[in-house]
Amino acid sequence: MTHWEDFYNTHLPPADFEDNRSLLKEFCERHNKLQNRIVLVTSGGTTVPLEHNTVRFVDNFSAGTRGSASAEYFLDHDYAVIFMHRHKSLEPFTRHFTGQQFFDMLDIADNSQSSTIAIKPDSVDVFAPVLAKYKIARETQMILYVNFTSVVDYMWLLRAACECLAAFEERAVLYLAAAVSDFYIPEDMMHRPSPVALLKSKLKFHFVRSQNFSPTHKMQSGDGAPTISLQLVPKMLAPLASLWVPHAFVVSFKLETDENLLIVKARDSLNKYKHKLVIANVLQTRKHRVVFVTPTDSYELHLSREQALQGLEIEEPIVADVVQKHGDFISSAEQRQ
Amino acid sequence: MTHWEDFYNTHLPPADFEDNRSLLKEFCERHNKLQNRIVLVTSGGTTVPLEHNTVRFVDNFSAGTRGSASAEYFLDHDYAVIFMHRHKSLEPFTRHFTGQQFFDMLDIADNSQSSTIAIKPDSVDVFAPVLAKYKIARETQMILYVNFTSVVDYMWLLRAACECLAAFEERAVLYLAAAVSDFYIPEDMMHRPSPVALLKSKLKFHFVRSQNFSPTHKMQSGDGAPTISLQLVPKMLAPLASLWVPHAFVVSFKLETDENLLIVKARDSLNKYKHKLVIANVLQTRKHRVVFVTPTDSYELHLSREQALQGLEIEEPIVADVVQKHGDFISSAEQRQ
């Protein structure tokens, strides 16, 4: 696995990086002065480009449901929210309606002078509370949106956000709900022309991943086909929890397809990175059941059938529980001082 | 390369296939009775799942700009439009506004009795014409939306649409703007647990693609790492143009990164599939320049700087040209009868 420092040394920041860093800095400084609690919510999947011009990439599927819903509930608890999300993934508030749903809610009225367009009366009841919350969050500047696409973008933004969050010490929550790729293709392994163009012209083609980086010629298979190394992405949770925001309340997520591995793997992660909480879930049941795993405890949180039918989202009790734990964490830190 | 019939024999249709087929059938029968012209617009990229539970996939990048804009212009020319698009890619009309743009255009007014929500007066001028066109297209049932995600979904929908379009004979246009993957991973080559989970546990891992399908054991590299075959997707343009809709006006798109290959490759495609038109473009300049390549001719179509600044979209002249060619094509078919 690449060491995390090497990763930043060998990958350039995205083009909009300095703009985002300024936004993060301004947002954090303002809320730190106000002594607000703050949460970084990461959301959506990352891409791994397969070629320089980035027509093709490997994607981790994530619509961003967990992150975008959670961001809304953190706002309800008066947290300042940095919503760091995959470009085009779901966003707080707007997530409730698709483009066509918006259009279908609208009526046009023409009079002699001009047109007016209004939300149909029967949609106002559903729409007004969502719109009102959105407007308040924007007007009070309690939410900042920053976005990423590739795993490299994500890594740069994550570190920049941590640099700004460090000053909050215990008042910061990191809520790392994004689905980050495990691997990437190093810059010098990306082909021009694209690997897929090569695919068409050769009998055989290998994507090769080795634990230790090996030079290309060693990767060649016997038949002379070109090869590409897939490298494991460094686990940023390690420097994040120990160096970047050592005082913050760090929450990671673990998505498994095997129920039996859930708690074991969550516990492994806590032992390795020494952070505060893993929220573990199984792919198929993640919308109504999660397991909270702390260094000392583990327990399930789930929606009943009635709650789900009433439209309750599991992110509401998840966030309430995290906020409760975060409050306790701040109190005990204050008592130690 | 897999033969196209084998592809359908070895890949199940998507879960919503029969629903979509019924919709296509109803839509086509209605418009065929009305003697309307019809266009199938395909739009957006396809995915290739890397594992059964589909957390990770390879994606072809395409926002769906070309297809969604073109669909609007075909409606302007009184075509019935089947808009067959990648789930969550851009759609006609709604493509002009993101979720936050919608929210920011709206004002809430509260009086003692109830709330009303209306589009701000300064946004009405921009929004009203788009909304009005959307409403007309829906009310007159001139547009049908069907969507796909994976390349397998796409293949099934494409054939089903063609089966319904055949009855239109010369009155049908196929406008194949979707970015379809060149390769796929056969069902029996997808791993459980996921290949990426295996990645983590093994020193080496190969994605292998062979022109001729080979059994797994032959694909194993010397060190015992698991392998996955990537197969070339059959070129559906072959059965489509010669068997499924032999009388239709078929337009394909060619996206290249190398300007010099543009016309040569477009001409190759026309020679091979015997369809009517290739619209060729280079990735970097595709928003303001395309090349029309017919069996006898090739010419450029581009936006001037002023046109681009005025907000003209290149899809407007592209569609106007296709509609013109399609009209000529119908006339000459009628003269032959």
From TrEMBL, chains A, B:
Coiled coil: none annotated. Transmembrane segments: none annotated. Signal peptide: none annotated. One of its GO terms (biological process) is coenzyme A biosynthetic process. One of its GO terms (molecular function) is catalytic activity. PANTHER family: CORNICHON-RELATED. This is Phosphopantothenate--cysteine ligase. It comes from Drosophila rubida.
